[in-house]
Design brief:
131 residues; mainly beta; 5-stranded antiparallel sheet; two-stranded antiparallel sheet; globular
C-alpha cells in the first residue's frame, strides 16, 4: 500500500537531515483513523465518533533494507472493538508532541467495520518505505 508523506514531514525531514536550527526528531507517532478521504497535508480527516475510538501510539522498529529502506510497527496497534458500524477510508500519522502531520494513507476501498469487531494493525502491518 502506498501512502503519502505530508508536506510537514518532507520539510521537517530535510531540516533534520541538514541539522537546521529548530529541527528535532519525532519521538512519539500516533495514528488517527479517518472515515473520509484525507489530503496529503492531513486536511479532510474525520475521525470515527464512537466511544471505542481514540488515536493510538505507534512503536516503530529500526529501518531495514537498502533501496528501498523500510520501517514497520513492532507492536500491535489496537483500537479495541467498535461500538458502531463504521466505514474506514484511511489514516493519518501525526507527531504526537507537535501535532504535525507525518503521513497520509487512503485505503484503495473503504473498510467496513461492524459493531463489536476489533480494529487493529498486526505487528508489521504498518510499513513505511523510502525508495
Amino acid at each position: 500500500m502506498a501512502g503519502t508523506f505530508s508536506h510537514d514531514a518532507e520539510q521537517d525531514g530535510l531540516a533534520l537531515l541538514f541539522g537546521l536550527a529548530g529541527s528535532t526528531a519525532t519521538t512519539t507517532v500516533e495514528i488517527k483513523l479517518s472515515t473520509t478521504t484525507v489530503s496529503p497535508d492531513g486536511t479532510g480527516l474525520t475521525e470515527p465518533g464512537g466511544a471505542w475510538y481514540g488515536p493510538q501510539d505507534v512503536l516503530m522498529g529500526n529501518a531495514t533494507g537498502n533501496a528501498p529502506r523500510t520501517i514497520s510497527n513492532t507492536a500491535e496497534i489496537d483500537y479495541g472493538n467498535s461500538d458502531e458500524d463504521v466505514s474506514l477510508v484511511g489514516w493519518v500519522m501525526y507527531d504526537k508532541a507537535t501535532g504535525r502531520t507525518r503521513g497520509v494513507y487512503n485505503f484503495p476501498a473503504p473498510i467496513s467495520v461492524q459493531t463489536g469487531n476489533p480494529v487493529k494493525f498486526a505487528v508489521g502491518a504498518l510499513v513505511v518505505t523510502l525508495t
